[in-house]
Amino acid sequence: MQAEVNGKTIQLSEAGWLENLDEWSEDLAAQIAINEKIGELTEEHWNIINLAREYFADNGAVCEPRNFSKLMKKKYGKDKSSQKYIYSLFPTGLIKCANKIAGLPRPKGCS
């Protein structure tokens, strides 16, 4: 699978995960969001994407959903920390959808 972004062809896995993490960009994120049937990314989407990328940069691993909820609560408040809130923005959840759009590696056991 491939994505065309700004005249550049970017390689994605069969399931739509970024093959080379260094090729991630906000424009690519927008393209992956369309592939995931999210539509236009809002500030709320970007808050989650950026926090997921921050966590990965600091820890070298993707954040487990329960811990991610705690990070969201700390940064954005209780009303933005629930799994229900995250699923309202990313219908297949943090791991399968938000992390894919954020250009993070596919966790083991995730399709």
At a glance:
It contains 5 helices and 2 strands. It has 111 residues and is mainly alpha-helical.
Count of individual domains = 2
Radius of gyration: 13 Å
Which superfamily, in CATH terms, is the homologous superfamily of the largest domain?
DsrC protein, C-terminal domain
In the sheet with the most strands, the strands line up as: 1-2
- Principal-axis shape equals globular
- Report strand %: 5-15%
Structural class: mainly alpha
Examine the coordinates and then state which fold CATH places here, giving the name of the CATH topology of the largest domain: Arc Repressor Mutant, subunit A
In helices, the fraction of residues equals: 40-55%
Could you give the distance between the termini? 15 Å
Class of the largest domain in CATH? Answer: Mainly Alpha
Number of β-strand runs:
2
Which stretches of 5+ consecutive residues score pLDDT under 50? none
Q: What's the order of the H and E elements?
A: EEHHHHH
How many helices in DSSP terms?
A: 5
Biggest β-sheet, characterized? 2 strands, antiparallel
CATH architecture call of the largest domain:
Orthogonal Bundle
Overall pLDDT confidence: 90
